[in-house]
Write a structure and sequence with these properties.
Layout (H helix, E strand, L loop, with lengths): L2 E6 L4 H11 L5 E2 L4 H7 L6 E9 L2 E12 L2 E8 L3 H15 L3 E4 L7 H4 L9 H7 L36 E2 L9
Parallel strand pairs: 2-7, 5-6
Antiparallel strand pairs: 1-3, 3-4, 4-5
Helix pairs in contact: 1-2
């Protein structure tokens, strides 16, 4: 068609930031992903990132980012896309390029299409695998306010959104890189 997928180890922060700013969900708690943040985010010299960029007529319309954990094990740490077909195409190209043993999705957004229909994109619930292997279950996300004595109003600090409700989140894996 009229789309082109480019696979790279280079972070194109300006283009990614522009796309991310146009796709920020205004009604959810999310990271402000401008080009400065994206440059900082992927500047960790101890991490190895792989980028898939989807272009239509030289304009970036979608991207996804994988982080190598070890060997052929990867985390999906960020993505922006408008159409599911572009996400599927980028994932397919990444699979051919990297031949991953597995990819863990770290996008915390119940409205995200991968979380709504994981099997459609080749994902399954991690707890299903861990249960079969008699391993621990994936731990829940734990959050807290910065106050020692917490009150109910302290949880609604971002435009009145209750931080405890995961349906209010649109967050990617931002705190798991150690420098």
């Amino acid at each position: 068609g009229d789309t082109c997928i480019i696979l790279s180890t280079e972070c194109k922060a300006v283009e990614m930031g522009h796309l991310a700013q146009n796709k920020i969900p205004e009604d959810l708690i999310s990271v402000f992903s401008d080009d400065k943040y994206i440059n900082w985010r992927y500047a960790n010299p101890h991490s190895q990132y792989f980028f898939a960029y989807c272009y239509r007529r030289e304009e970036l319309i979608a991207y996804l980012v994988l982080k190598r954990i070890s060997g052929r094990k990867y985390d999906l740490v960020d993505s922006q896309y408008g159409e599911e077909k572009h996400l599927k195409l980028m994932l397919r190209k990444m699979h051919k390029w990297l031949n991953p043993l597995y990819i863990i999705n770290w996008i915390v957004n119940q409205n995200d299409v991968i979380n709504q229909h994981p099997s459609k994109f080749g994902f399954i619930d991690l707890n299903l695998i861990l249960n079969r292997m008699s391993k621990f279950k994936k731990p829940p996300f734990l959050i807290r306010t910065t106050k020692v004595c917490q009150q109910e109003r302290d949880w609604k600090i971002i435009e009145g959104k209750d931080m405890r409700n995961i349906a209010n989140w649109s967050i990617n894996k931002v705190i798991a890189d150690e420098i």
